[in-house]
Amino acid sequence: MGKTLVDKIWDQHVVVSKPGFPDALYINTHFIHEVTSPQAFDGLRKRGIPVFRPQKTRATADHNVPTINQHLPIKEALSRHQVEMLTKNTNEFGVELYGLGHPFQGIVHVIGPELGITLPGMTIVCGDSHTSTHGAFGAMAFGIGTSEVEQVLATQCILQYRPKRMKIEINGQLKRGVVSKDIILYIISKISASGATGYFVEFCGEAIRNLSMEARMTICNMSIEMGARGGLIAPDQTTFDYIKGRQFAPQGADWDKAVAYWQTLHSDADAEFDRVLTFDAADIEPMITYGTNPGMGMGVTHHIPSLEQIEDKERPSFKKSLDYMALEPGSALLGKKVDYVFIGSCTNSRIEDLRMVAGFVAGKHKADNVEVWVVPGSKQVEAQAKKEGIDKIFEAAGFQLREPGCSACLGMNEDKIPAGMYCISTSNRNFEGRQGPNARTFLASPLTAAAAAITGVVTDVRELI
Amino acid sequence: MKKVFQHLNSTAVPLPIENIDTDQIIPARFLKATTREGFGENLFRDWRFDANGDPKPEFVLNNPLYKGEILVAGKNFGCGSSREHAAWSIGDYGFKVVVSSFFADIFKNNALNNFILPVQVSEGFLHKIFSAIEADAEAKLEVDLEAQLIRIVASGEQESFDINPYKKACLINGYDDIDYLLSLRNNIEQYENSREFNF
Ligand code: SF4
């Protein structure tokens, strides 16, 4: 019987497999950032051991960093301390750091791919759940906790049980105004925020094949939002074209050898999955979430479910969620006033996202009632946007283009949405308080977010293009 | 100092809410510490305290009736981010066991790595536990890791739970994953040398 892609990669990385024990899995690339690494370095110090393979770990500062005046010292003392600790730890243990001011700095899941560090067939981990993003290259990439960060630093290995495999196939072609963010919000709304728990998900089908690498990253990024361990897409010519020539990508003879290997990385035709789901791209509309988990999403023209449509035992959680959002069951979101628009995060802050938004807003101006923040995913994205004149388009539209970081995705820095305000956001989580205490989040695609920026209300972007 | 976990008999704190995500357990703005200690203060921060930092009397952790080393929560507990701070805050607050009918993967791992036992029970048994605590805030639960059993002491009703044998041994003996991985050092170096593609 054939093997799934997950099994192929897994089998290539098992160092030791003993009955009754989890497999010891070798990790090719380990990313770290300032929030989930300090306690791991402390652990090494307590044990008196070094980082085992320092050149396989890369560090950046992203979660806590300000997005205005990054050249000045960080004002907030605790954030500054965390970023300083990262500098100190990486120096002491010999790990490469792309810190503030470095031309490679940015959100960890944006910089790995754009630097050519993320490659097909790799195992990749990071103390951050959206590590699944890197799966777009046909890598096995997943988020880990700080104890596991310490394991990888200490041994370049991690203990894992083989996950179950799920295949999600999206057939057909996307309709106008529908982009990859809508695909993933649609899938999550169908299978719920825990629908893929325990699985590694392989995305495939015509609609996925037709996506660019950056659009694929958006899909894999949010596979964690349906509970999956990770998501991945088999590499193909689109993947190889994207990687070729990037900073740390293989070159010359190494490149040819690598591509030959990468071409073997796909699920065999007779491979068996534990679960298979199939969707039709033509059924997908521009999506928006109305609740406080990413599974609470719908087509932007739809109505929020009424209480009767919700199962009895789910009702208390459903009501709690809508109370938080100050929305009525059964109501529509179209026309609902928004206060903030956030275009950013590791889901949608790459150059294509910025181009998509710029293409839509060129010649338009934001509505008076909204504040619009565009936060590029990395220094390189920022530089590219400026090179292409995207910054000018944003300026003319009244959008603020800021400096790279996680920003209002999780509100660890000053970029918080004020209490009670509505934010339409291209990030990945609409949890209570995620974007600031009592902030209310609508998740949507960059296009849908940009449309709301122009009209000041939740809008069906298809009517404006 | 290594912790061990074997057996617990305690009252429990009920939190019958589903999909409790790690942003509720410990909001991101409290992740700025660089040590593992002290997170218990901010456990469930925004449910527990109002904007002025005053306790919200209606939240269960502020209700003196309910205390104990066991937290009982609704389905899909710990979804969301991979922050281990969620497990640290639960442990630091004093919980040793979390009971739910479903746990998010990463949270489960993080809890076990911090010697907190996630006990996954059926929907029906979870309901019985909530009812037992509702009837009597002093109702005790007994968790026996060796036998993999959780029992409602007053009624004697019990259910068995799953835990993988490796993690069970770690909890009972107080050793952790790094101890095991470090013992594999030779295998790891052999693996590295045998790879054509070690990127
Ligand atoms: S942008 Fe948001 S989701 Fe992505 S790594 Fe940063 S905080 Fe996490």
Task: Provide a concise account of the structure shown.
The complex is a heterodimer of chains A (465) and B (199). Chain A has 465 residues and is α/β, with parallel strands linked by helices.
Based on the structure, what is the oligomeric state of the protein chains? Answer: heterodimer
Q: Largest sheet of chain A at a glance?
A: 5 strands, parallel
Approximate strand percentage of chain B = 15-25%
Rg calculated over all Cα atoms of chain A: 21 Å
Q: Regions of chain B with pLDDT < 50 over 5+ consecutive residues?
A: none
Each distinct ligand: iron/sulfur cluster
Describe what this molecule looks like in 3D.
The complex is a heterodimer of chains A (465) and B (199). Chain A has 465 residues and is an alpha/beta fold. Chain A has helices at 5-13, 38-47, 77-93, 108-114, 146-155, 180-191, 206-209, 213-221, 237-243, 252-262, 315-325, 351-361, 379-387, 390-397, 446-455, and strands at residues 14-16, 23-26, 29-32, 57-60, 96-98, 123-126, 140-143, 157-160, 164-171, 199-204, 230-232, 275-280, 287-289, 297-299, 340-343, 371-374, 400-401, 422-425, 440-443. In chain A, the strands form five sheets. Chain A has a five-stranded parallel sheet, with helices on one face. A five-stranded parallel sheet of chain A has the order 17-16-15-18-19, with helices on one face. In chain A, a hairpin with a 6-residue loop joins strand 1 and strand 2 (23-26). In chain A, helix 2 (38-47) crosses helix 5 (146-155), helix 12 (351-361) crosses helix 14 and helix 12 packs parallel to helix 15. Chain B has 199 residues and is α/β, with parallel strands linked by helices. Helices cover 32% and strands 17% of the residues of chain B. Chain B contains eight helices and seven strands; from the N terminus they run βααβαβαβαβββααα. Chain B has a seven-stranded mixed sheet. Chain B is globular. The mean pLDDT of chain B is 93. The chains are: A alpha/beta (465), B alpha/beta (199). Chains A and B meet through helix 2, helix 3, helix 5, strand 8 and helix 11 of A and helix 4, helix 7 and helix 8 of B. Iron/sulfur cluster (SF4) binds next to loops of chain A.
